[in-house]
Fold:
Amino acid sequence: ALPMADVSSLTHYGEPYDGNTRFFKSTLFVAAVRSCYGECCLLHGAEWMPPK
Structure:
């Protein structure tokens, strides 16, 4: 069986691991701030993602 997170709400953030540095990637900061308010986040990456 797959592991299940026992949370009421989960915000999912995905970013590419392609080395793109043209834009400030604030997901780690946003996840840290949200955790201070008791909100759960899932951060992950992929080799390639479309622009929007």
Summary: The CA atoms of residues 15 and 52 lie 11 Å apart. The first strand starts at residue 10 and ends at 16.
